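EI: anyone free to look at a 335-residue chain?
SC: sure, send it
EI:
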Amino acid sequence: MLIRTQNQGYDHPIPSDITPASAYQRRRDWLRWMASGAAGAALAAWAGREALAQGAATTPRPGKLAPLPGAKSAVAGAATMEKPTPYEDASTYNNYYEFGTDKSDPARNAHRLKTTPWTVSVEGLVKKPVKFALEDLLKLAPMEERIYRMRCVEGWSMVIPWVGYSLSALIKKVEPLGSAKYVEFVTLADPKTMPFVGSRILDWPYTEGLRLDEASHPLTLLSFGMYGEVLPNQNGAPVRLVVPWKYGFKSAKSLVTLRFTEKEPGTAWNKAAANEYGFYSNVNPDVPHPRWSQATERRIGEDGLFAKKRKTLIFNGYEAQVGQLYAGMDLKKFY
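SC: here you go
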């Protein structure tokens, strides 16, 4: 993604003895002074937009769950300038088939999920296999806010402020062997708390996978929260994967095992319908799903009568950051 920047819009010529940086600082000071006076309401909004342009984490908490703040991230592409999807939509319009197939089923049924105690096992081709308690994972690296676009393979999208840290922090901790080429992600499959586990929709437990270089990319997020709070159960509590340049189903929820392998792991939707859901599943407007186009998308929260669909971007708009991972690959063959 190429982050949009705003023209600084100086109204007067800049004297030769003032650098652009100092001029910009003077302008920000002037905005703050004016925002405290009679023109406060209008100029405060203006100053707020400029703060957002500088990458400040400004997402308000919904006040629903325990707080989990995240600092501003220095990772390139980590904070889109697009308006976040309302929390109410992001937490009630979900795909989480362990709790039902309708979009409202997860929010209705996921209260059964028990997220404490929770452990995540790391195994396979690593020097340091380990079983992390959730408390230890939370302390493994500093929490950051990442405002990512999320594109579902079904043709809809959201913008979600996640809280977590790059998965690479965990990967470095366990020291993969030279033979490790992939990471398999295994999710919880508990028929006592997940009423649809055991259904014929998918092969349970739900599994996903990434190449090791994809998993190690700084944008690949191990997420523990969203909107400044811990994850709601229906959004994958207590810990999930977020891979913003891939279709949403690649971001496995409620993780219990990470397994480092030499061979490409089988993944849930690829096993269910390989002709529809490839292993890579990178967002690509030029590769249609067999039953619908991927050229455009419907942004949830913009469902008005005259709302236009958005054009879908290659790699969901993160081409500048991740395109090199696929240099020389046929993206229609490796879909």
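EI: Residues 1-56 have pLDDT under 50 and may be disordered.
SC: 👍
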